[in-house]
Amino acid sequence: MGIVQSRLKTYRKANGWTQAQIAKMLNVTQQTYQEWESGKIEDLRSSTIIRISQTFRLSANWLLGLSDDMDLQ
Fold first, then answer.
1. Distance (Å, rounded) from C-alpha 68 to C-alpha 25?
2. What angle do CA 60, 61, 65 make, to 5 degrees?
3. Which of 23, 27, 31, 44 has the fewest CB atoms found within 10 Å of its own CB?
C-alpha cells in the first residue's frame, strides 16, 4: 500500500467513516473509493488529490507524504 492509500485509510478510520460514506462525500462510487484506498488505482490524478484536499481541508502535501502536517494551511 502506498502513502496516499495509507493516509486515506488512516484519515477515514480516524473519523469513523465507512468507505461508502466517504465516497458519497467525494461524489464517487464506493467501488472507486475502495480502489483508491486499496491501491488498485495507484496513481491518483492531481485533480483527485486536490478534490480530496479541499473536501476534507487536508494538506495535499500530507496526502502525498511530503509533510507530516495534515491540516490545510
1. 24
2. 120
3. 27
C-alpha–C-alpha distance, residues 35 and 55, integer Å: 19
Triad 12, 18, 22: Cα angle to 5°: 65
Strand partners, 21: none
pTM of the model: 0.86
> Between vectors from CA 11 to CA 72 and to CA 35, what angle results, nearest 5°?
110
The label of the residue with cell 495509507 reads 6
Q: Which runs of E-coded beta strand occur in the chain?
A: none
Instruction: Find all residues with CB under 8 Å of 32, minimum gap 6, and list them.
Output: 23, 41
